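Table S7 (text form). Paired inputs.
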Amino acid sequence: MSADKGSPVGTWTGTVAHSNQVDKFRISFAGDGTLSLQTELESGVVSAGTGTWTRTGDDTFSYRIQEIFHDEQGRAAHVFVAVDAVTAGEKYTGTGTGELRTPDGHLIYETVPVVDARLEIGELA
C-alpha cells in the first residue's frame, strides 16, 4: 500500500480489456505525477508508453498515456489512453478512452479500455 492512502504511487500489474481482447500490463506511478507503462498484447507484441497522473479525490485518480506501438509487420502507431480510476486497498479499477492513430495523426480506431490492476511494488505505510 502506498504511504498516502488512495494514492497510486508504486508499480501495478493487471489487465486491460478493449476491442474484444485482453492485454497484460505493468504500470509505475511516480510521486511527481509521471508514469511509465509496458503492455503485452495477446499477440505477444510489447509496447511501452509514458504519461502523467493526477489525484482527483481521496480514492480516485486519472491518468493519460501515449504509447508507441508496432504491429507484427513492424508498422508503427500511437496509442493515446485516458483512464479515470478508483483505488480500493491494493487494487484499482478504471475505464476511459483509447485512440489508435497513425504516426501522422490519422485516427485508425477508438476503444473503451477497462482496467483492473493490483499493487506489485509500492511505498509502505
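Next pair, protein 2 of 2.
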Amino acid sequence: MASDDITSRGPDPFVKRLRSDAPEDLPGPSFEGFYTPSDHEGYGRLYLQRDAYIEFSLEDVVFHATIPEEQSPVLGERATAIRLARGASVVYSRELVTDEFDVDPRRLPERFKRCPGLSTFVHGC
C-alpha cells in the first residue's frame, strides 16, 4: 500500500463516475421524525429514534409537512417530514437515554464496590 498524501489525491474513479452523472437539480435529503427547535439558535432537530436525532440549519429546509397521527412512524403521534437543500450540512447525534433501571456506579451504596480483577460491580467480594 502506497503512503501518498491524501490531500493531494483526487477522487477515486468510482466516486467520480457516481458524482459526474448527478443532475444539478437533484433534491436534497429527506427525513421523517419528530421535530423540535434545537438548543442552537437557527437550527432544528428531528428525532429519528428515541436516542438519535439530526440537527440542521433552518435555512436549509426547502420543504416540510406534518405527518398525520395515523401515518406517523409512531402511531398516534404527530410527526414531521422535511427535505433539506442539496449540500446541506446535517449532524447526526445520539443521546444517552436513561431510565429508572440505569445504575450510576458512583451512586451505589458502599457495600457495592469494585473488586480487584473484576470489571463489574459485585456485592461484597
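Helices lie at 13-20.
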